[in-house]
Specification:
Elements: E1 6-10, E2 13-18, E3 33-38, H1 48-59, E4 63-68, H2 76-79, H3 81-87, E5 93-94, E6 98-102, E7 105-109, E8 128-130, H4 146-155, E9 159-162, E10 172-174, E11 179-182
Parallel strand pairs: 2-3, 3-4, 4-5, 7-8, 8-9, 9-11
Antiparallel strand pairs: 1-2, 6-7, 10-11
Length: about 190
């Protein structure tokens, strides 16, 4: 399978973002960076052993900060949220419906796994919007979230990073305000 690593320098900080590793994270060679992001679907089945294996690997990556956003295959975060939260290593930031600022760069995540169930509160000055699923009409094979589309239009993040749609992994789309990037890393063989 072809692998994609989204890598940029933003405000003089190196950022790498991946998504949709589906249990194959140990095949990746992630370079050292300031901020490493995973936008969900770390697992296939989302069970405890798969989640534990992913977080053990993720915690060891050479980055100053690590951010994790759950995907629809990371079932523990929806079905057993307390257990899932206990599995998140202390050096990993789990972002879900909140904002964090690292090195002067703001990251905000809303729970689009793959769709939002309610409209998020507007946050100001968001550099990176991190979700698992895409907004409607953006690299989404016409199945993206319409609520997310409205939110992105109002919020105007500099980047919207997401995965979920394997057919558009590695693709980008720019509008006047936002660069949309499907950061899917590789697809499992279904």
């Amino acid at each position: 399978n072809k692998q994609h690593l989204f890598q940029i320098s933003y405000k003089s900080k190196s950022i790498i973002a991946i998504s949709d590793t589906h249990g194959g994270q140990r095949k990746l060679n992630i370079p050292a960076c300031d901020i490493l992001i995973h936008c969900g679907d770390a697992c296939n089945d989302g069970d405890e052993s798969e989640s534990q294996d992913f977080f053990e690997w993720f915690a060891l990556q050479k980055s100053t900060f690590k951010i994790f956003v759950a995907g629809n295959h990371d079932l523990m975060f929806d079905l057993e949220p307390e257990m899932a939260m206990k599995m998140v290593p202390s050096n990993v930031l789990y972002l879900d419906n909140k904002k964090v600022v690292l090195f002067g760069v703001s990251f905000y995540s809303v729970p689009a796994r793959p769709w939002l169930h309610s409209s998020p509160t507007i946050q100001h000055d968001v550099d990176f919007l991190l979700t698992h699923g895409p907004a409607h009409s953006v690299l989404d094979f016409n199945i993206g979230c319409k609520t997310m589309q409205l939110f992105v239009e109002k919020q105007k993040p500099v980047y919207h990073l997401f995965g979920h749609i394997h057919q558009t992994q590695g693709f980008t789309f720019n509008n006047r305000n936002t660069q949309f990037v499907n950061i899917g890393t590789f697809s499992p063989q279904y």
